[in-house]
Each structure stands twice: as structure tokens, then as C-alpha cells.
């Protein structure tokens, strides 16, 4: 790595990724962190990539199994919603390994599941459904709906002892909360009260150009 690459990667972790997080644009924060992580710690980055590749099929089957279970549970409880499962980004896995002195195979929650439903009431009903079906892990429940993050992010986060005795993280949010998680503060300008405001559209465009 050149000195300039190292410097820019560190600057990205120190400034640009936190800026994206402050604006509530989580996908950008994760992408910036992973790009910087690859430059700053190439050996550790490669270790995680190779470790994830070895378990790719197993994780794919696990995601499909849990998605079917959660979808069936939602239907049985009369709750509308979609379910998705995804790998956490590599930098967050690295931080967990470093902070808790774990090997990659012991990072139990490298996969996060997400339920997107229709209303605030449905979010808490889905949470109760999950906690009734699986035992919650102590200290791993966060209510970011009642107390949003400083970047206006809202969702319910819980970790339960899921299938096969593995800890499983589930995030629950409404469509509007999901939009905010994707676009951050810009989402409120565009969708406030369901009305399109030409001036707000200009602000959104300006912020996106700035970040790009």
C-alpha cells in the first residue's frame, strides 16, 4: 500500500464513514468502512473474505431456512411484512473479532435478518412473536423506535437463540423507517407528509452530489 492510500483510508474511517452515518445513510457507511478496512488491514480483510467463502453455502441455506420460518410466523399471526437476511459487512465482523477476541467461526451473528412491516403496532407485535418463539439473549434488545439514534434511525433490534441453538439478530422496522435507514435525513425532505416539494428535491439532489 502506498502512503497516500493508507492516509486516505484512515481519513475515510475517521471522517467520511462517520459523516455518512451521521446523515443516516447506512449502506454508504458500510461500503466506505469496508473499502478503508481492505486498505488498512489487507491480511485481516482477506482472512474474513476467505472465511466467509468457506461457509457461503451453509449460510445461504441458513438464511433460506430462517426466512421461511419468519415468513410463516408472520402469516400465522396475521402480520404483513417481508423478510430478508444478509451478511454483516466485513469491517463490523472484524471489530467484533477484535473487541471480543474471537476467531471468525465463533462470530455467531455474522448474519442479520430484517422484517419490514406496515405499522408501528405491527413492529412490536412482530417482536413479541419472535420473543415468544425464541429465547431472547440478555442485553441484546434495543428499542430505537422509542429512542431513535441521533441520525434519526428507527428500528427494533433483538438477538435470540434461534435455529440450531445459534444466536440470531433480527431487525424490525416499517417501510418509512426502512426508507430513512437507506437515505437518512434526505428521506424526510422528500417524503414529509407524503408530498413532493420541488425545493426539497433540490436539497436531496445537492446532498447526494456532495456525498458522491
3D architecture notes:
The protein is an alpha+beta fold. 58% of the residues lie in helices and 15% in strands. It has helices at 3-22, 26-40, 42-54, 56-76, 90-100, 120-133, 175-183, 185-191, 198-211, and strands spanning 82-87, 111-117, 135-136, 142-143, 156-161, 167-174. Strands 1, 2, 3, 4, 5 and 6 form a 6-stranded mixed β-sheet that branches. A hairpin with a 5-residue loop joins strand 5 (156-161) and strand 6. Helix 2 crosses helix 3, helix 7 (175-183) crosses helix 8 and helix 8 packs antiparallel against helix 9. The mean pLDDT is 85.
Order of helices and strands: HHHHEHEHEEEEHHH
β-strand amount? 5-15%
Coarse structural class: alpha+beta
In the predicted model, the low-confidence regions spanning at least 5 consecutive residues are none
Biggest sheet record: 6 strands, mixed
| Helix proportion | 55-70%
**What is the end-to-end distance?**
24 Å
Principal-axes geometry comes out as globular
What's the count of strands?
6
**What is the arithmetic mean of pLDDT?**
85
Radius of gyration: 19 Å
How many helical elements? 9
Question: Keywords, please?
Answer:
alpha+beta, 9 helices, 6 strands
Task: Give the arrangement of secondary structure elements.
Elements: H1 3-22, H2 26-40, H3 42-54, H4 56-76, E1 82-87, H5 90-100, E2 111-117, H6 120-133, E3 135-136, E4 142-143, E5 156-161, E6 167-174, H7 175-183, H8 185-191, H9 198-211
Parallel strand pairs: 2-6
Antiparallel strand pairs: 1-2, 3-5, 4-5, 5-6
Structure summarized in a few sentences:
It is built from nine helices and six strands, in the order H-H-H-H-E-H-E-H-E-E-E-E-H-H-H.
Amino acid at each position: 500500500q502506498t502512503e497516500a492510500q493508507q492516509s486516505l483510508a484512515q481519513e475515510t474511517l475517521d471522517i467520511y464513514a462517520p459523516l455518512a452515518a451521521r446523515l443516516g445513510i447506512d449502506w454508504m457507511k458500510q461500503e466506505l468502512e469496508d473499502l478503508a478496512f481492505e486498505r488498512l488491514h489487507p491480511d485481516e480483510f482477506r482472512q474474513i473474505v476467505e472465511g466467509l467463502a468457506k461457509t457461503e453455502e451453509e449460510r445461504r441455506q441458513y438464511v433460506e431456512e430462517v426466512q421461511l420460518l419468519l415468513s410463516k410466523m408472520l402469516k400465522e399471526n396475521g402480520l404483513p411484512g417481508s423478510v430478508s437476511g444478509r451478511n454483516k459487512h466485513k469491517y463490523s465482523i472484524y471489530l467484533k473479532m477484535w473487541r471480543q477476541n474471537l476467531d471468525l467461526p465463533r462470530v455467531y451473528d455474522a448474519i442479520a435478518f430484517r422484517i419490514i412491516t406496515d405499522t408501528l403496532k405491527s413492529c412490536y407485535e412482530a417482536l413479541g412473536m419472535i420473543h415468544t418463539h425464541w429465547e431472547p439473549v440478555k442485553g441484546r434488545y434495543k428499542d430505537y423506535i422509542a429512542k431513535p439514534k441521533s441520525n434519526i434511525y428507527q428500528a427494533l433490534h433483538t438477538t435470540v437463540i434461534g435455529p440450531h441453538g445459534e444466536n440470531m439478530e433480527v431487525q424490525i422496522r416499517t417501510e418509512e423507517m426502512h426508507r430513512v435507514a437507506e437515505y437518512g435525513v434526505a428521506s424526510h425532505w422528500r417524503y414529509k407528509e407524503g408530498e413532493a416539494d420541488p425545493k426539497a428535491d433540490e436539497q436531496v439532489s445537492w446532498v447526494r452530489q456532495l456525498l458522491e
